[in-house]
Predict the structure.
Amino acid sequence: MSNTKTMKTRKTQVVIIGAGPSGLLLGQLLAKQGIENIILERVSGEYVLGRIRAGVLEQGFANLVREAGVAHNMDTKGEVHEGVEIAFNDERIKVNLKELTGGDTVVIYGQVDITRDLMEARSAAGLESVYEVSNTQPHDVTGEHPYVTYEKDGKTFKIECDYIAGCDGFHGVSRQTIPKEKRVEYEKVYPFGWLGLLSETPPVNDELIYCKSDRGFALASLRSQVLSRYYLQVPLSDTVEDWSDEAFWEELKKRLPKSAAEKLITGPSIEKSIVPLRSFICEPLQYGKLFLVGDAGHIVPPTGAKGLNLAASDVAALYEILTKVYKENNTECIAQYSEICLRRIWNGVRFSWWMTNMLHDFQTTKSAFDTRIATSEARYYLSSEAGKKVIAEQYAGLPYEKVK
Ligand code: APR
Ligand code: PHB
């Protein structure tokens, strides 16, 4: 490491590591409060926008995007969904989110679209993002003068700051900055993956259908009325090359309820990928002047559509705390960050684990007894108004906890 004294040094109030949805949304909100921030991103903007991710937005997330002043496209192009379906083979059960929660709905709008809207808003506001940096490193996070170094075009830079927001995802540098002996990590890896396919075809149903079929899990989702997103549970040993489009569509038809399969319009895939499923939480989420936000601190299986939404509630808490720090000179509230976020994260992790456990075929990795229990549990919850309410209030999103 070259001598930090000879580096090009700048100052800001908050350095945000990562220009995914967490970093961009936080940056936009802080700027709204006049809190200076610089975003450092490892890859190019185009690369960030090439990632296909879920797009089921809880009201809390949608409200944050509106507060950030970046909601025009979401509110005009996104679809408001009042319900979601869960199917047991050919039996389809509607979970009416709006009715069961007294009004809550979700917005269907792709994460890549939200990310693009945030990127464009940041650029239009003249806020600084540095893409394609390398060797980003937080320093002195427990001291009085934290700073971040990074490399770009062969030069090393230093940014002095007050706080560092680690929005750098599961594989980022921030979580590793917390000494191993200071953090506890909880993890569960699931014995299967999701094979996802994106196609420019009309969706098979107006609302999402989570399918528990004898052949394994499937999900019928969408991005718009002309862009569909489908998933199949596949063994971890499968690769995308094992699945031609034809093989995908054939298997999906067998896992969708018949009344939906009959309506399925197939077409060429414009994206196909396999993601592994994991639950992960790091405690604590704050270490000195460093805060872990979103995937940097936690990961959920996509079954509950909580990944982006848990990132949003972390952003909401950190935004509220940093606003109190700078506007009210209240640094006491910093200590609440981890607790507030972790209460909501553990609930989201549990819901995502529960939905995954109930709807997937664990085959020999689960005893025959446990398999029957999972099916019985799913049937009970979906045959009871109280059970459906439990699912609805968590799927639509529990309220955010306010900073005291
Ligand atoms: N330096 C700079 N940037 C980094 C570094 C680093 N050392 N490491 C990672 N990054 C960048 C990644 O390139 C990525 O663009 O941080 C960003 C993290 O973005 P995400 O992984 O999307 O995480 P987050 O913004 O928290 O969004 C969570 O993304 O993965 C999905 O399901 C997840 O929907 C959820 C959402
Ligand atoms: C998606 O549309 O990609 C999606 C929707 C809901 C989920 C997971 C993924 O639970």
